[in-house]
Amino acid sequence: MATPQACSDANPSKIFNLDMEEGQKEVHEEVEEVQVVIDYAKRAQWLRAAVLGANDGLLSTASLMMGIGAVKKDVKTMILAGIAGLVGGACSMAIGEFVSVYSQYDIEFAQMKREGNTTQKDKLPNPFQAAVASAVAFAIGAMVPLLGAAFIEDYKVRLGVVVAVVTIALMVFGGLGAVLGKAPLVKSSLRVLIGGWLAMALTFGLTKLVGHF
Q: Which segments cross the bilayer (predicted)?
């Protein structure tokens, strides 16, 4: 048992340091507990949705530009078609995502009300956030073929550049989607790439065929 003299002789700075170490330890443990709670699965789903949205923007805009390029050789018409595809596609994606997520929100909130657990309302999906994220992802993908064709006057070179930049982007998006979806990397990337080539080729060929009538 410590005597009053021993307690009085104790170094105040040591006592303070011990208190500080205890406080830091408690804070560190609290931080670790917060880190464990992070929902990495939900984050991966959002990232995968963003990659898929960007891939949609890339492929639909590139196919539209290739289709227009099959009948109109001037760069202005091709770029205007791409811009129209970007704006229209981004708006369509945003509205579709908003309606879909809002329906999910209503269903989950109704379930919470039945269970008397509406205090966790902030954990429900955000329709506005989903709509904006979807539109932005689509627009980012659509910018790839637009930037590839924007400054090239020569018709054949422009088409070749669009195909080249879209090919690279399809491989990147396909690889990211495979990693986030835990799918085979090479197989998934090739599937996305071949599908993209087919979409562009079919749009180009069919539009050129219709343009002859």
A: 75-95, 130-152, 159-180, 192-211
